[in-house]
């Protein structure tokens, strides 16, 4: 019995007993799909650049870049035409700023509650409800701002005439509600990624739940929170339907959120569905504004990547 057992052990330990593993075609297929998905993003970006550069170059061959950037009158479809893009940039930044003032406090507050205060059942119930806001069509948000929020603000405004029918305040407020799920969900995921050992150590030192959330978890998850905020900013800048419906379609170089304004995306949408002949300077303004918008979002993404790397925390 002993010799037989030893022989079996020897056979099992011999090199011939170990067989080569089967080829893992599934893993190779998944790897190919992931590479293809990443290449789609890269090729899409390259395609956008290729589509924007030739018409934008023709436009700037006719219009001075300095006049385009610093001009205060935007009326490319009138005679005489003016190509100062500052009213569009101002409207875009104004609406985006209002949206951030709404979305950042509410989104981060929701993230802190879901991550640090809510019980698992409560989190499982409220987080999907919060993310439902991201699935509502933006045209619905636009009509809500125009038909419900603006009349409400006009009725309760404490002094003066209140907001105009088309105004940046309503558009920015509703846009902020739209991007709350983006900031809240990604920030909550970043906070949940913080190891519980840091929380336990802070509680062991006598810290309250609020102190743990604000002084331990929030700084540790700062890179993910910054990334969530920058993604919300990018979505706010690129939003079209809300601003086209609620903010108006008249370029207006003003810092009063109660007035109507036109954003860069709203102009692109309005001019793109018009009857502009291909190759005219009016048609080329679409690509010039689109190129400027692309550069703005690219700069913000580069800044966000730098901030994420700066505040990134790696845990083992």
Automatic annotation (TrEMBL):
<comment type="similarity">
    <text>Belongs to the binding-protein-dependent transport system permease family. CysTW subfamily.</text>
</comment>
<keyword id="KW-1133">Transmembrane helix</keyword>
<keyword id="KW-1003">Cell membrane</keyword>
<protein>
    <recommendedName>
        <fullName>Phosphate transport system permease protein</fullName>
    </recommendedName>
</protein>
<dbReference type="InterPro" id="IPR035906">
    <property type="entry name" value="MetI-like_sf"/>
</dbReference>
<keyword id="KW-0813">Transport</keyword>
<feature type="transmembrane region" description="Helical">
    <location>
        <begin position="85"/>
        <end position="113"/>
    </location>
</feature>
<comment type="function">
    <text>Part of the binding-protein-dependent transport system for phosphate; probably responsible for the translocation of the substrate across the membrane.</text>
</comment>
<keyword id="KW-0472">Membrane</keyword>
<feature type="transmembrane region" description="Helical">
    <location>
        <begin position="166"/>
        <end position="186"/>
    </location>
</feature>
<dbReference type="InterPro" id="IPR011864">
    <property type="entry name" value="Phosphate_PstC"/>
</dbReference>
<feature type="domain" description="ABC transmembrane type-1">
    <location>
        <begin position="89"/>
        <end position="304"/>
    </location>
</feature>
<dbReference type="GO" id="GO:0005315">
    <property type="term" value="F:phosphate transmembrane transporter activity"/>
</dbReference>
<feature type="transmembrane region" description="Helical">
    <location>
        <begin position="216"/>
        <end position="237"/>
    </location>
</feature>
<feature type="transmembrane region" description="Helical">
    <location>
        <begin position="29"/>
        <end position="53"/>
    </location>
</feature>
<dbReference type="Pfam" id="PF00528">
    <property type="entry name" value="BPD_transp_1"/>
</dbReference>
<dbReference type="GO" id="GO:0006817">
    <property type="term" value="P:phosphate ion transport"/>
</dbReference>
<keyword id="KW-0592">Phosphate transport</keyword>
<feature type="transmembrane region" description="Helical">
    <location>
        <begin position="125"/>
        <end position="146"/>
    </location>
</feature>
<dbReference type="InterPro" id="IPR000515">
    <property type="entry name" value="MetI-like"/>
</dbReference>
<feature type="transmembrane region" description="Helical">
    <location>
        <begin position="281"/>
        <end position="303"/>
    </location>
</feature>
<keyword id="KW-0812">Transmembrane</keyword>
<dbReference type="GO" id="GO:0005886">
    <property type="term" value="C:plasma membrane"/>
</dbReference>
């Amino acid at each position: 019995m002993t010799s037989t057992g030893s022989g079996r052990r020897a056979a099992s330990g011999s090199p011939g007993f170990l067989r080569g593993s089967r080829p893992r075609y599934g893993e190779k297929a998944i790897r190919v799909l992931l590479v293809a998905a990443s290449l789609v993003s890269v090729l899409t970006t390259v395609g956008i650049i290729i589509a924007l550069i030739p018409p934008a170059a023709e436009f700037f061959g006719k219009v001075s870049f300095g006049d385009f950037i610093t001009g205060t009158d935007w009326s490319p479809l009138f005679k005489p035409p003016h190509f100062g893009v500052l009213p569009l940039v101002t409207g875009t930044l104004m609406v985006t700023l209002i949206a951030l003032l709404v979305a950042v406090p509410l989104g981060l507050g929701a993230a802190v509650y879901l991550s640090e205060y809510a019980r698992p059942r409560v989190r499982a119930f409220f987080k999907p409800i919060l993310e439902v806001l991201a699935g509502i069509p933006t045209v619905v948000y636009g009509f809500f701002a125009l038909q419900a929020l603006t009349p409400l603000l006009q009725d309760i405004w404490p002094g003066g005439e209140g907001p105009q029918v088309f105004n940046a305040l309503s558009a920015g407020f509703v846009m902020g509600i739209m991007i709350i799920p983006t900031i809240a969900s990604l920030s909550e995921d970043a906070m949940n990624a913080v190891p519980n050992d840091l929380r336990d150590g802070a509680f062991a030192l006598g810290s309250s739940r609020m102190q743990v959330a604000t002084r331990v978890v929030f700084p540790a998850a700062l890179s993910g929170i910054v990334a969530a905020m920058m993604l919300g900013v990018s979505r706010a800048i690129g939003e079209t339907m809300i601003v086209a419906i609620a903010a108006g379609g008249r370029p207006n170089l003003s810092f009063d959120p109660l007035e109507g304004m036109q954003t860069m995306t709203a102009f692109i949408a309005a001019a793109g569905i018009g009857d502009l002949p291909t190759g005219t300077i009016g048609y080329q303004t679409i690509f010039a504004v689109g190129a400027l918008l692309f550069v703005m979002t690219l700069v913000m993404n580069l800044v966000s990547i730098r901030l994420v790397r700066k505040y990134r925390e790696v845990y083992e």
